[in-house]
Design a protein that fits this description.
The chain has 344 residues and is α+β, with helices and mostly antiparallel strands. Helices cover 24% and strands 34% of the residues. A hairpin with a 6-residue loop joins strand 9 and strand 10. The structure holds zinc ion (2 copies). One zinc ion binds next to loops.
């Protein structure tokens, strides 16, 4: 028994050294990752292959939104320490820069149909084959012989934030052990927000209730629905993203027990901020947008999403005074409109 344990320890030692380096590297690049185990490999003990199942460690994370797994094998030789698998969807594969894998022996094949291999020697042909494929998901597979090769791939496909961060380790509800950037982190396996995601205590500037904001000062009041934003508090009388009314107007409406709804002037102020707005009237949605008139200037377009009709206004005043829906002036029926929001 002792001999078996010693053998296994020796066998796993180099692998765990690699996984330690890998987790440090992913951490320094703020790549949220889970360390997991995968069964299904024959390994070599005392120069002999055994066909028993052995667990090998694997990392799960995402690169540019694509599900990625890196396996560190226990059986290794000078050309092989493990393999990487990316699982791009069809659209992701079509826009993927496969050159990143050029220094490795890689394979691309259909997720369900392993026979469906994509040959990237001719990019045009590969594109056509992917487009015509019945598969919606693919696998990019490559063996690697040293950690540098994997680090290079992660480096090329990840964006390292320049903000300071701290890592957090925890067991997610989905059962995986996770290491995440504690500012932005979410579980790379199930997508659930980390309980370590940074939150700071704050007081709602509208109703005074205690609330939580994130590192950017964003958050939402549970009581009145006001969305916290650090810039709003500097310009209390202006409509500023992400709210549709000014802070002072919200305070007034709150004290009167009224909902936070923009009047037409505020709607236009929000339009100046967002460029695209919407409202609903009699069950029909209308879009209000700035559109280029081809002379480096912008007109305002009122678009009826049901009939496809569009009306153009030269200025915000023109829009405010003359825009009509169902033959009625918008300013006269504004109170009857609903779902005023930025364009969804
Ligand atoms: Zn999870
Ligand atoms: Zn509030």
């Amino acid at each position: 028994m002792k001999k078996t344990v010693d053998n296994l320890n020796n066998l796993y030692k180099p692998t765990f050294e690699n996984t330690d380096k890998m987790t440090k590297f992913l951490g320094s690049h703020c790549v949220d990752h889970a360390l997991d185990f995968h069964y299904g490999h024959r390994i070599k003990i005392n120069e002999k292959f055994t066909n028993e199942l052995y667990p090998i460690p694997l990392f799960r994370f995402k690169l540019q939104g694509i599900k990625t797994e890196v396996f560190f094998d226990v059986y290794t030789n000078k050309n092989y320490i493990g393999y990487i698998k990316l699982y791009p969807k069809k659209e992701e594969l079509l826009s993927f820069n496969i050159k990143i894998f050029e220094s490795l022996k890689y394979l691309v094949y259909g997720f369900y149909n392993y026979q469906e291999k994509i040959n990237f020697e001719n990019l045009e042909e590969a594109r056509t084959k992917i487009e015509q494929s019945k598969e919606n998901k693919f696998i990019i597979y490559a063996d690697f012989e040293n950690l540098e090769q994997i680090f290079n791939i992660v480096e090329m496909l990840s964006v390292r934030p320049n903000k300071r961060f701290s890592m957090a380790n925890y067991k997610c509800e989905c059962g995986h052990y996770i290491t995440v950037d504690a500012y932005n982190g979410s579980c790379p396996v199930c997508g659930k927000d980390s309980t370590f995601k940074r939150k700071f205590a704050t007081k709602c500037p509208v109703c005074g209730t205690n609330g939580l904001k994130d590192q950017y000062g964003r958050g939402e009041c549970d009581k009145c629905g006001w969305i916290f934003d650090p810039f709003v508090e500097e310009q209390k009388d202006n409509v500023i993203y992400p709210n549709l009314i000014s802070l002072n107007k919200a305070k007034k409406l709150y004290s009167e027990g009224k909902p936070f709804e923009p009047n037409l002037d505020e709607f236009i102020e929000a339009l100046n901020c967002y460029s695209e707005m919407q409202f609903e009237y009699n069950g029909i949605y209308y879009a209000v947008e700035f559109v280029s008139n081809g002379e480096d200037e912008y007109d305002i377009e009122l678009y009826n999403s049901k009939t496809g009709e569009a009306f153009i206004f030269k200025t915000t005043d023109d829009f405010k005074n003359n825009a009509k829906v169902e033959g009625k002036l918008l300013k006269d029926i504004w109170e009857e409109t609903t779902d005023r929001y930025w364009l969804q």
